Amino acid sequence: MAMSCSRSLRSLIITKEAVGVLGRRTFAAAGGKAKKGGKGGGAGDAPKASSLTKEVKSTTVVGANILKDGTDPKIMADSEYPDWLWHLIDKRPALSELRRKNIETLPYDDLKRFVKLDNRARIKENNSLKAKN
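Structure tokens predicted for Large ribosomal subunit protein mL54 (133 residues):
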């Protein structure tokens, strides 16, 4: 039993030279081998034509499926989506704009954003001061 274990361990031991060769990173040369199809990339790099019809493209969200066996979701009418969804793309005020306003009259969401952005700015300033010293 001990003899067979030592033989199997001996076969797993790799010399330092072999590790050096195996662990070395290599990079492709800029003027290296040509790809199949000749020089310059040619027609092989051209974008493929879409096999989806215009009807499918206009009724489904193509590429939104994240499940292996699922299908792309269908586009619904605007009234079927929740109201908060339409406010996701609204522009939120920047820190400089929030500093100009009276903090006591800010709505809760803007106040929360002001505190977050102000803390972030102070942390960046302190980090830059520490880096200079």
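Helices lie at 2-12, 16-22, 54-59, 95-100, 108-132.
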